[in-house]
Structure formats: C-alpha cells, structure tokens
C-alpha cells in the first residue's frame, strides 16, 4: 500500500501544482506521475483561471527583478535558494544567490537559447527548453509553464577547488508580500513530501565560492521525508512521517518539529528558523532552517521549501560560534513540496495515472473511490 499511497500523494501534488502537460519532460523534478486522461484538463484557461484565483486570494505579487526581466525564485533540491531574472527580448539571464551551502556564485549572468521540448499544453503549444551555459562551468536547462508561472529543470556548477554540484529545481514567479504573511494568508494544514541529504564538515551559508565544499556524510546519505504540517501565523508545526491534529495542535503520529517563520524584506521571501542545542560553543540558539516559496497552483497554494539546517540527530557534532553567529558540523539539506489540504470533488481524480519513471509501465486507474493498480505497483 506504500507505493499506492505515494502514487496518490504525487497525483494530488501534481494537481495542486497545475502540472499536467499532455506529455512529460525529463527535466521535471516535481513528480513522476502524470495523467494520461485528457478529460482531467478541460482547457488551458481553466488552469490559468485557477492559478489567477490563487494569486488573487493570497495577494501574491510577481518576483521583483530589473527592468525588462521576469523574475523567478528558485528552489534547489539540495537546499539552495536563488533568484532568476530572464530577459526574453535580449535572451539573457542573471542568477543571484539568496542562500547556498555549496559555494554557488553570488551572481551569474549570460545568454540563453531555446529549443523545443517534448512537453505540450492541452492546446498543442510546445513548451521551449531554456538552455544556459557559462565559461565557469555553470550550466542548466529548464521549462516554464506560463499558466502558473512555475518552472522545473536542472543546474550544475563547480565551486572553486570543489567537485561538480548538480541539482534539480523548481521555481515560482510569485512571492508573498509581508502584509499577506501577517494576515495569515498561508494559514492551514498541508501535506508534504521530499528528500533530505545529510552532510558533515559544513559551514553555515558560505559567503565565498572559494570555501571548502561540503563533505558527504556517507553513513546517512539521503532519506525521503513526508508528512503533514500546520501554518498558524509565524509558527509552523511539522509532523515528519505523521499526521497533524488540529484539535490538539500536535502530531498524532510521527516526529514533531516546530519552526518560526520570519519575513526577509530584502529578498521578499519567508525564512524558517528552529531552536538548536549545539554540542559545543553556546547554549540553545535559533538556527536558520530554510526558505519557503509560494507557487500559485490552480487548486490553491503550493509551497516549496528549501531545507538547510544543522543536523543534531544521532549525536552529530554541531558547534556554534557566538563571535560570528556561524556554526560548523553536520548539516541536513533538501527540498519539500507541499499542497494545502482541501476537499476534492468525488470525480476530480478520475482517470488513468501512469508512472513515467524511465523503464516503468505501471499505472493506476481511479474511478470515484475505486482504484485499480497495474502490475508493478504493490498494494
């Protein structure tokens, strides 16, 4: 039943994201599940209208960049946060680092080209692949869905003196103003899924590409994470591998982790902190834990979270330096995708859902409350 549950979670996450182009692209890291039933998407306008409704209800604004450019906040699967500015007329781009643990350059700019992808919108419009490369080894490609102003792709770069870093990413063209955060526009319960990677010998938020790269803690390389969380004002209560109970404001199962959300008015993003007790260096302190991005899904808000925080599990060494407010030691980074829990109509999920993982021929047919799984998906 585990795979079936994950299939359904991916299904709902995709629906929330407004994903569902009529064919899939290998650049997407959001989900391996797509619908093969075109009746699930009535028209481009329905997705655009749903996304626009989310923008209006949340009071979202476009990511601010320079004149002539369109902005996107980039959520890297390794926990980095960047800002992308695209000038479609001049065919130029600029990346600005907001947060990085992997020695990403502060600013990277250059030109891009566009080629046709295998992804199309329901009206037959072919979505282009944006291709970028620079002399310093920074390269990538991505696809933009104009209906929801979201993008997915992959980037690689090599820190000075380090090894090449490669990371899938998702991006949003919207940000949430501080006034809307205060107004509680994101309050509610969410379901999330993602993957975390554990590292050792790291320094919080490197400020120079010449700093040593993070060394992979091979004893605990990567691990999936899923569960639910609640947003209530500036408090985010996460139930890792568990279910949040509104009645008791606690986790009915799983591990409970509480974060504080603050607004970074310089970059117009929401940042998370969490209390950490280091093994040496000082008493408990509030450690930066990640950055929250808001996507305008056609079924409501979709949150992507860049996780970047100290790893204090299993006795991992963590030292806090009070002189410069930095820490060194073990670190956990990654990315999570979360959809706000809302009631679906009885037939909203009907259709045939295919696993598009290369080499897989598995699928699930949903009709109301009935689910028929093909060979390859274990009940």
Layout of strands and helices, then pairs:
Layout: H1 2-17, E1 33-35, H2 44-58, E2 61-62, E3 70-76, E4 81-87, E5 92-99, E6 107-120, E7 126-133, E8 139-145, E9 150-157, E10 165-172, E11 174-175, H3 178-182, E12 188-203, E13 215-216, E14 222-232, E15 235-240, E16 244-245, E17 250-251, E18 255-264, E19 269-276, E20 285-297, E21 300-310, E22 318-321, E23 326-340, E24 351-355, E25 363-367, E26 370-373
Antiparallel strand pairs: 1-24, 2-11, 3-4, 3-10, 4-5, 5-6, 6-7, 7-8, 8-9, 9-10, 12-13, 12-14, 12-23, 14-15, 15-18, 16-17, 18-19, 19-20, 20-21, 21-23, 22-23, 24-25, 25-26
In short:
With 379 residues, the protein is mainly beta. The protein has helices spanning 2-17, 44-58, 178-182; strands spanning 33-35, 61-62, 70-76, 81-87, 92-99, 107-120, 126-133, 139-145, 150-157, 165-172, 174-175, 188-203, 215-216, 222-232, 235-240, 244-245, 250-251, 255-264, 269-276, 285-297, 300-310, 318-321, 326-340, 351-355, 363-367, 370-373.
Q: What helical percentage do the residues reach? A: under 10%
Question: Which fold name is given in CATH as the topology of the largest domain?
Answer: Lipocalin
Q: What order do the strands of the largest sheet run in, or round the barrel if closed? A: 3-4-5-6-7-8-9-10
Q: Helical element count? A: 3
Annotation, overall tally of beta strands: 26
Question: Would you mind describing this structure in some detail?
Answer:
The protein is mainly beta. The protein folds into two domains: 2-177 and 344-373, Lipocalin (Beta Barrel); 178-340. The protein is built from three helices and 26 strands. It has helices at residues 2-17, 44-58, 178-182, and strands at 33-35, 61-62, 70-76, 81-87, 92-99, 107-120, 126-133, 139-145, 150-157, 165-172, 174-175, 188-203, 215-216, 222-232, 235-240, 244-245, 250-251, 255-264, 269-276, 285-297, 300-310, 318-321, 326-340, 351-355, 363-367, 370-373. The strands form five sheets. It has an eight-stranded antiparallel β-barrel. An eight-stranded antiparallel β-barrel has the order 12-14-15-18-19-20-21-23. The chain is globular. The model is unreliable at 1-43 and 204-213 (pLDDT under 50).
């Amino acid at each position: 039943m585990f795979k079936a549950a994950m299939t359904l979670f991916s299904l709902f996450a995709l629906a929330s994201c407004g994903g569902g182009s009529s064919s899939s692209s290998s650049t997407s890291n959001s989900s391996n599940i797509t619908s093969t039933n075109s009746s699930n998407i009535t028209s481009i306008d329905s997705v655009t209208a749903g996304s626009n409704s989310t923008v209006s209800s949340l009071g979202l604004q476009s990511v601010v960049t320079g004149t002539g450019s369109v902005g996107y906040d980039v959520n890297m699967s390794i926990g980095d946060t960047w800002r992308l500015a695209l000038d479609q007329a001049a065919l130029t781009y600029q990346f600005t680092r907001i947060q990085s643990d992997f020695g990403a350059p502060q600013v990277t700019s250059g030109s891009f080209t566009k080629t046709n992808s295998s992804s199309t919108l329901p009206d037959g419009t072919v979505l282009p692949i944006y291709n970028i490369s620079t002399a310093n080894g920074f390269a990538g490609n991505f696809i933009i869905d104009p209906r929801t102003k979201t993008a997915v792709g992959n980037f690689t770069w090599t820190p000075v003196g380090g090894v090449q870093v490669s990371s899938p990413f998702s991006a949003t063209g919207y940000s949430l103003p501080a006034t809307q955060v205060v107004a509680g526009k994101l309050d509610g319960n969410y379901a999330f899924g993602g993957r975390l990677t554990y590292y050792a010998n790291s320094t919080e938020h490197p400020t120079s590409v010449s700093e040593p790269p993070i060394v992979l803690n091979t004893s605990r390389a990567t691990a999936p994470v899923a569960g639910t969380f609640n947003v209530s004002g500036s408090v985010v209560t996460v139930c890792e591998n568990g279910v949040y109970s509104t009645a008791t404001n606690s986790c009915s199962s799983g591990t409970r982790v509480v974060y504080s959300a603050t607004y970074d008015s310089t970059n117009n993003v929401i940042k998370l902190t969490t209390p950490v007790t280091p093994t040496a260096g000082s008493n408990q302190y509030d450690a930066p834990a990640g950055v929250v991005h808001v996507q305008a899904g056609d079924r409501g808000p979709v949150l992507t979270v860049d996780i970047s925080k100290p790893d204090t599990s299993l006795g991992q060494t963590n030292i806090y330096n009070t002189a410069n407010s930095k820490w060194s030691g073990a670190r956990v980074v990654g990315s999570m995708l979360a959809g706000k829990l809302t009631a679906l109509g009885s037939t909203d999920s009907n259709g045939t859902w295919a696993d598009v993982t290369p080499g897989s021929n598995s699928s699930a047919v949903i009709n109301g409350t009935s689910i028929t799984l093909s060979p390859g998906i274990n009940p």
